[in-house]
Batch of 4 targets.
Target 1
Amino acid sequence: MLREDDHDPALPGEDSERSRLDPFVVATGDAPPRDQRDLMERPFFSLAKTPRNKPILYKAADIEVQVFGMPEHGMATIWDADVLIWAASQIVAAENNGLTTSRFVRFTPYHLLRAIGRPTGNHQYRLLKAALARLQSTVIATTIRNGPHWRRRQFSWINEWEEMTTRAGRVEGMEFVLPEWFYNSVIDR
């Protein structure tokens, strides 16, 4: 979002899910990684480094997974999943310290990239934006665990995302909204 005044915080539009949620602001991004078991147990992500558009269709016992990518972005990759694991780690660390968290995550790209072991140059910022686009545009239809129950769900990895920049084009921060089920699976550990 290009801001009119570089000193005023960027606000989400009224039609945005972010406008209805309090942000969880990640201070440093240096919480230890925490695996999300459900992310690792099934083929939710492409393993290819080149864009994959061929759907993933997986069935085992009573679990089905169908993953579809948008042609312009391709499917979310296993490297994109680092963003989700990082977000889960930040939420868990904050909860463990008695802080309030939210599905609405606000952060600086620099801290995220450092925390997941990536360089922090301009190229990596572009790759991060591409990863967020894939995480939002990938559609997954599956039976997933929600507490003691199994449910059929269709979702994307993030509901929406935004980049905040100054007039000069300097990135000041990014935000995304995690799906409710993902957030609940993190805090109900």
Note: Residues 73 and 130 are 7 Å apart (CA to CA).
Target 2
Amino acid sequence: MNGEEIVDFVSKKPADNEEEQQAAEEEEERTVVPTHREAFAHLDAALLWFEEQEECDGRRLLSLKSIRDLAARKRQSLLKQMLITDYIK
């Protein structure tokens, strides 16, 4: 290796390290999805908060209740014991 090749090699090393750091940071930045139970609890709290706001109207309230009810159904489906025949379809 001559001097230029050594300089190129050494100067490229940190770039690779930076790419590895960025990849690690992107993995850390991945959003953690709440469970159905957590989503229901947060939506229920949001519903209580929203009902007290001046901007609360029937249409928006119904939308929020619909989303909360969806989380409740998903939460309930996890609590229900499945039959063995449900797995054989």
Note: The mean pLDDT is 83.
Target 3
Amino acid sequence: MPKPTKGARLGGSAAHEKLLLANLAKSLFEHGRITTTEAKARRLRPYAERLVTKAKKGDLHNRRQVLQVITDKSVVHTLFTEIGPRYENRPGGYTRITKIGNRRGDNAPMAVIELVEALTVAQEATGEAEAATKRAAKDAEVAEVATESKVDVTKDEEAAEESKDA
């Protein structure tokens, strides 16, 4: 006889909880980070980490086991081709939970659960933009120093000519 999981429950039946965790895991792997309640984030963390461990192994058996949980093939493909290899040398701890305060409507404690070391497209673009800005500032500084040194040389030459005339 199947026994219910010990600890906090996430809603009605065991089937509802199973589907809820599968959908949360799908959203996490699709977006890299999701905002949910603390209880759901705490229940999702070991569930998602088991799926990432299966993705790290990458064989057909593990892919089929993940497909039983996450039915969206594109998300499973992303999990096995991008997320799994990213954590190849990491022995665990693929997710991070950050508490963000309470929800306005019902005062439920909220949290952000995200994949560790995950660079989203926006973060990569921001990093590239910051690097370009730093390079531009450095180039401008080098150009400014070069023009100042030219000005100093011409002033020295003019002073030398005036001393010759005197």
Note: DSSP finds five helices and three strands in the chain.
Target 4
Amino acid sequence: MNGKTFNVALYIRLSREDGDNMESESITNQRDLLHLFLEKTKEKLQYVDEYVDDGFTGSNFDRPSWKKLITDIEHGKVNTIITKDLSRMGRDYISMGEYIERIFPERGIRYIALNDDIDTLHETPGLEFLQFKLMFNDYYLKDTSKKIRKVVRAKKEQGQFLGWKAVYGYKKDPNDKHKIIVDEEVRPIIKRMFDLAYNGKSPRQIANIFSDEHIPTPSVYANLNRGVKSTAYELWCPRTIEEMLTNETYIGNLTQGRRKKLNYKSKKEIRTPKEEWIITENTHEAIIDKKVFDTVGELLKKNKNKPTGNNIQLLSGFMVCKECGHAIGINKSSDGKRYYCCCTYYISHSKYGLCTPHSCNYKKLENLVLEEIKKMCKEYVDSSSFSNKLEEERKKNDIKIKKQKEINVLDKRIRTNNSYIDKIYEDKLSGNIDMEMFNRLTIKYKDEIVSWKNQRDELEEELKNIDTEDDNKEKEEILKKINEYLSFEKPNRNLLVNLIDKILISEDKTVEIHYKFKLA
């Protein structure tokens, strides 16, 4: 490239996501350093333009100004790129190596990284350590990403809302961006959705109702709030309805972490298993009563085992084959006049001789089951020991509530101290505190954590020793449901789901009902 005109592009990048030190890596700092180099260099470098990506990660090259720079290179406008250091161009080891060792040489592009002593035109000392520096920058990105995720998770566990927008039905509190408040315009829609589900409507049926009534979907509603006009309404998706009906945010529990990035280099998001969700209880106003929410959740599970067609029978989803453990389905007879029950596993695998039909008349079975439930409910209510048990449970429950509150306080203190440890580690890396201060604070916070964990373990052990067959609220609720059952000529599914766990059906037509309350 000797004798060639060097048309220079100055590339500047800053990203909080990469953990960049705001003072040393600031846009102004980079700009001043690069222009000072152009002023003092003895080489004839022709300044063309400045390309700035402020707030874009170095984990990939999907950045607007970088793309514009590449376009200008392809058009012959630029043949030299200068950055403050390698990390300003990018931190991804593979992509950086591809650019510096293949793409730039093939296109005749000179690259200079000032602080790393890199100049691809000359055999500068920094080139000998290029691979090491690229690997270090990549590791730094991975390590920083890991630390940021820990800090973010700790904040979420403390009940801070960190999403860019709240779930449908809520909005960010204008006085505190880490809290959410009810969106009063949407509250009636959420309540109606749960009411429809509580009364037996499936997610698909609810989606059809909302679509027919032209109720804006969450995405359309969000666009309307941003001033984006929509000439047509989107159709509601049953999957969206089901996700909303199972989202604890609507009962006041902040639910975060339902999705996560594939890794620190990818923008792709994947669903996380429910056990990895971050759920913090009682962080905001609930729209839906917890009892209604729990009943709807049970109905959704039961409705998955429904008969052929659109009709859901009273016992759909409750019946299980005692022999193989699979669901007993409900189907229409060939003449369409009656329903019959049959083991779904047998239907799918009958040619292999697995299980047996368990075939029986559904209506007769339903009547038998309802009579048996009524009989058992009467015995439960008439039990002379019921009131005494209830009073005992009231006392036990008071003790449980007190101890659980103490445990919650200790858990919060432990989470807070873990956050402090993460913070002082970052302060040590950035030079805000020295090693002596870091060690002293770390020992202090860890000692407190050990003490609080010991106290928590003692309280949890005391809780285990308390007889917790049923607390008083649960017994009172069961009694209420039982009385409701006895007052109905024929109960509905949302009442049954609160009383019955499952109904086992044997091949000899024996029926075994498993209740959600203790019979003794």
Note: The first helix runs from residue 27 to 40.
